Amino acid sequence: MIELYESQRAMRNMRRAAMQRGVIAVLDVGSSKIACLVLRFDGSEPLEDGIGSLAGQSGFRVIGAATTRSRGVRFGEIHSMSETERAIRTAVQAAQKMAGIRVDHVIACFSGAGPRSYGLDGTVDVMGMTVDEQDVARVLSECEVPDFGHGREVLHAQPVNFALDHRSGLIDPRGQIGNELSTDMHMLTVDAQAIQNLAHCVKRCDLELAGLASSAYVSGISALVEDEQELGAACIDMGGGATGVSIFIKKHMIYADAVRMGGDHVTSDISMGLQVPMATAERIKTFYGGVVATGMDDREMIETGGETGDWEHDRRTVSRAELIGIMRPRVEEILEEVRARLDAAGFDHLPSQQIVLTGGASQIPGLDGLASKILGQQVRLGRPLRVHGLPQAATGPGFASCVGLCLFAAHPQDEWWDFEIPSDRLSGRGFKRAVQWFRDNW
Amino acid sequence: MSRMEPPLTRPDPQMARLDPSASRLKYRIERLMLTPVFRFALRVGLPFALCFGGASAWVSVEENRQAFNLMVADLRASVESRPEFQVKMMAIDGASAELSEAIRALLPIGFPISSFDLDLPAMQAQVVALNPVKSAELRIRQGGVLQIDVVERVPAVLWRRADGLFRLDESGVLVGAAAARAAHPALPVIAGAGAEQAVDEALALYAVTGPIRGRLRGFERMGGRRWDVVLNRGQRLMLPETGAVRALERAIAMDQAVDMLARDLLVVDLRLPRRPTIRMSEKATQEMWRIKAIEAGGD
């Protein structure tokens, strides 16, 4: 796992460098839009314990925001490199222009690439009287890494729980007295190809990648309120090409997955069903879309328009009930798929089963009613947290992952690679081991 | 960096309109323009470098440099030769006729001349270096006049030396040669080694010689430390080093009381203040001895 350490640590160092410069960009590479926010850090780090004022997001301010139509991204994965690069460039350029400052470091998130969750655990005997950094490092490296297959890369590896002897649920075991330290870790792997593509696109834009995150995870950070994260909740981020699912408990993500369906599929259904172009279908969906038909909807006629020159073809109308009839099955299908993922993750065993719908496609009227039928009773629509300086246009649910990425940039969760490498794994680094020995003994 | 390959699908014209995208070059230029260092260099460094480079290139040509120097010189000359800066004449105030002549001879200036060409401090030093000049002030007056205000030294004593007679002012500074004693009847005469260094003492003595002024010939410095008052008929008052004025006053008082100086004596020695001593002439001594002998009843 050393090579994983290396690349992730390099990104962490990049993030630290960006923090020192005080400016960092976050980039949400979605299937329907690419959003870029430029953050300025004032350097006011929160207090050591607790999360500080304003939910820990007082340290930064959004000074630039831009959105552009996504190109070359399908199902949350990069499909056409040059197109995506162009879209990223457009978004970054506009955000930079608004911020009036050049950004060199970017933290990106994407939704697709087939995320797969693994629960890891490891146990180790404490070497000294009390648990120290080395013990934590050892127990983390002791975790049995499953064979997640060739061509996949670890995106997140977060220790979610520490247990010392028979006391579980420890956040920070350092300094405590015990004999046996064990940990639970949540590891998320994605296709290495997707990460490489994204890294390449970002690099071609003369930017440095300072971090990567799963968009299901970051939209969970921003859309779930604190007690939902604590007691257990699932965040359904309904994007354009993929729908991300993340489950949180005790403020840690324990499961993430993605359904390769989203709002774009609804649009293409409309396009096919009504025989209209995608652009028109998108407009009709956003203006008149819904999932629950009422008697009124039979009488509300929608002009589909057209520019073929054929009067009959261009003057077609469709009732809203018909539109809903096209949309609903697809939305149901998405939600059913999400249900299956949640069931597979054992979501129904959680003490609280709050479900929060967010993402651009969650703005379909009546979705919460439909979702509560499929997913369970406790469903609400989530909007991202308010952060400093965020323009009004970027406060909608479609920007949940963007805002979450801001929070992630400001206060990233400790991941595996943030801990020290255990000294016995540092083969052939005698000097470092000597330094480590000195540090441990004095 | 390879050029962007064209999209494989034909772009939807309606969507392309909604789809602004920056070219790679434009993106890079914009990022460059947002770089603070680059902007500073563009705003400050580039104009400075351009100006400096242009000026250096121009100056590096020898002809340009000469032309520039010539232009500066011409400009300077044209300003200096303006009538406002011309000095047309010299006016000397406070100096006697011969001193004025001496100053004019000392400063041979060809009028008219620009005031920039006159070195007033040097000229002032030259004028002050003249013996009869105590102080001098040179300035250029309005109307193009070089005004020289001279304060002349006032001769206070005549100084008799082996090589002639000189005038000194009250501080003992040489004013000039004196033609003859008779030309300066009001000035006392001093002589002797070191006399010019004690002119003030001589003047103090002279001030109290009122009653005997008609008989006064002068003051002689003896041994560089004390004064002799020389009267006519070869008489001489020897004054002490300290309290000379008082001693002289006493001698005058004695003269007035007993008509001492009218008698046939050569020297009144006042060097010991408590015991004034007189030295009579040879003849008077013989005469006194004769009278004493008569009084004694001899012959």
Automatic annotation (TrEMBL), chain A:
InterPro entries, from UniProt?
Answer: ATPase_NBD (IPR043129), Cell_div_FtsA (IPR020823), FtsA/MreB (IPR050696), SHS2_FtsA (IPR003494)
One annotated GO biological process:
FtsZ-dependent cytokinesis
Superkingdom as given in the UniProt entry: Bacteria
SHS2 domain segment(s):
24-223
Annotated membrane topology? Peripheral membrane protein
Q: What is its main location?
A: membrane
Tell me where in or outside the cell this protein is found: Cell membrane
| Pfam families the record matches | FtsA, SHS2_FTSA
Q: Which UniProt keywords apply?
A: Cell cycle, Cell division, Cell membrane, Membrane
The entry's cellular-component GO terms read: cell division site; cytoplasmic side of plasma membrane
Which HAMAP family is this protein grouped with? FtsA (MF_02033)
What does the similarity note say?
Belongs to the FtsA/MreB family.
The free-text function statement in the UniProt record for this protein reads: Cell division protein that is involved in the assembly of the Z ring. May serve as a membrane anchor for the Z ring.
Subunit text: Self-interacts. Interacts with FtsZ.
What name does the UniProt record give this protein?
Answer: Cell division protein FtsA
Q: Which organism is it from?
A: Pseudoponticoccus marisrubri
